[in-house]
Amino acid sequence: MKLGPKVVFLLRDPEGFGEAISDAFHPNPSCSVIEESFELSLERYGIQNCKASGNIRHFLDQQGQYEVSVLLMQYYEPPILACAFNEVLAQLEGQKSSSMPTIVAPFFVASSKLKWDSKTATKFDSKGSLYGIQIGPETDISKAIVTRTQKAPPSLQIHHEPLACFLQLVRVLNLPTFVLIGQRGQRISDKEELEILYEIGELLAHTCKVNFSRGKITWKPTKKSKDEQEPWRALYG
């Protein structure tokens, strides 16, 4: 899997966040884009009828060199999601050390899925801010993003399965990664949620040197009742 030195890792989540961000990126006038799809076998996990699949948009410079790869992975219900994450991340880990890309992975998480010690992390409760978690070796990309985000508090507990799973895997693989976290939920209006999406998209575009169009963002998340969310958890009591 050929990739640029900067990889924006997005999940085609049921709420539509990943696809909304991906669709809003477009190249600079003097540059170009090529697209490809991928399918990776999950048979080594005992999964026969499903593959880790998705699309990649490569943004090329004037010389045709890969600059940024926007990877949009298909969503799967746990525990298949963990296998798919692991297989795709293994492709990134397999890059030559001299060309190991920096991964930037944004997540838009319901505030109810994030818990922390309010005594030591009062700032984390503010609306409209982006928070970051750096994993693995520090790179120029991660340094640039750190200056424009708040550091997630050490006491943060994540109860959002895709984010928790992704963090665990990149830590084990020690991949140079910066995870962006935006909050959404009952205390945040639809307009505020849209502004957070703009903030995420514009930060990614600024860091990765691509263009971002607010007008291409469509955000109509599916509202689920508590009883409908994550039915797989019933298997674990």
What value does the Rg take, in angstroms?
Answer: 17 Å
Low-confidence stretches: 224-229, 233-237
Count all strands and give the number: 12
**Helix content bin:** 25-40%
User: In one word, what is the shape?
Assistant: globular
Strand arrangement across the biggest beta sheet: 3-4-5-1-6-11-8-9
Give, in order, the helices and strands.
Answer: EHEEEEHEEEHEEHEHE
Based on secondary structure, the structural category is alpha/beta
How many distinct domains?
1
Number of helices: 5
Describe the structure.
The chain is an alpha/beta fold and 237 residues long. It contains 5 helices and 12 strands. The protein has one domain: 3-Layer(aba) Sandwich (Rossmann fold), CATH 3.40.50. The strands form 3 sheets. It has an 8-stranded mixed beta sheet with strand order 3-4-5-1-6-11-8-9. Strands 2-12 form a two-stranded antiparallel ribbon. A hairpin with a 5-residue loop joins strand 4 and strand 5. Helix 2 runs parallel beside helix 4. The model is unreliable at 224-229 and 233-237 (pLDDT under 50).
